[in-house]
Amino acid sequence: MTPQEENFMRKIEAEEKIEPKDWMPEQYRKNLIRQISQHAHSEVIGMQPEGNWITRAPSLRRKAVLLSKVQDEAGHGLYLYSACETLGISRSEMIEQLQSGKAKYSSIFNYPTLTWADVGAIGWLVDGAAIVNQVSLQRTSYGPYSRGMIRICKEESFHQRQGYEAILALAKGSPEQKAMAQDALDRFYWPALMMFGPHDSESAHSQKSMEWKIKRETNDDLRQKFVDQTVKQIEVLGLDHPDKNIKWNEERGHYDSSDLNWDEFWSVINGNGHCNRQRIEHHVAAHDEGEWVRDALSAYNEKKRAKKAQNAA
Amino acid sequence: MTNITEKLELFEVFVRSKRGLDHKHVGSLHAEDHEQALEYARDCYTRRSEGVSIWVVKSADICSSQEDDADCFYDPNDDKPYRHATYYVLPDPVNNM
Questions:
Q1: What CATH number is given to the structural domain containing B46?
Q2: Which value does ipTM take for this structure?
């Protein structure tokens, strides 16, 4: 190991954070860029399935809440893009990578939101799973990422609670509403579990990322946490658990559960989910349609600069 | 004799007390340029190992909102209590989310 590498590893082992101007191994930087940009893209693409329901929210209150939540997601994307930029990649490069498919985003957002109950299920289960992951990432070794996570976690609790509240209202409503809640749970439960990624043994980047403390807990450990906490939440709703094999294991102190449909997981990751193409097409279209705003902005800045220079002369 | 501080620029000083934490504003000082401000800041604000990293920023470069404007500046947020987690009343057994 070079002295630089030794110094770097000493900081990692002492639980010190790595800051943007510190020396770091190229692969550490690459792993971080991949993970943080993927996280940022997920926040931004994640606005689409929920945004789909803003105009059709069942009440003004639900609509205001949903607007606020989607607005938060845009903000979270911004925190994360900014954190990633400290590693020396530009915003436009990241957007290019998203649009060309080189960079991924969470596969959960390739599932469609068919009913209003899906919006509740996303807040409760998808944001719930994201929180489990993000709470763990507050202790990540890269300073700007860690601070971003702390800020995001503070805001995220509202997201999960509003989702659960919306689902609870349906679950306690008419038989049709209850059925709608059950259907949303049945469809979103499994993809939510897949959000934690492949089994540790199959995860390409996990080992190095754990060693460098970019990730603090393994995919399977985080998934288990989520499985455990969700059982009670389903019970309180009075809905049926989608996993018929869910069973408390006294010895492990955890719930045992069914294995996931990994063929589906890889298929969605590789672009064959219900909405993959639509999500990226929409992002490209929105980005292109915003071109005139960016043009107007730089023209205005140019004009202001020229005026300032003239006044100074 | 003109006061020397009138010729020097005012800088705001931010210190990171520990790796992983945000830089926090600790005060200001006069200096000739950024480099000098950084040295002065070290002498002035970190005599007892208060930090691991210092930022200095020209005070004139800071654009700030005015506290007198706080009412109208933040007003649109006050009528959105639903942005807070505590707004949602959930059954006790699941209230820890």
A1: 3.10.20.520
A2: 0.75
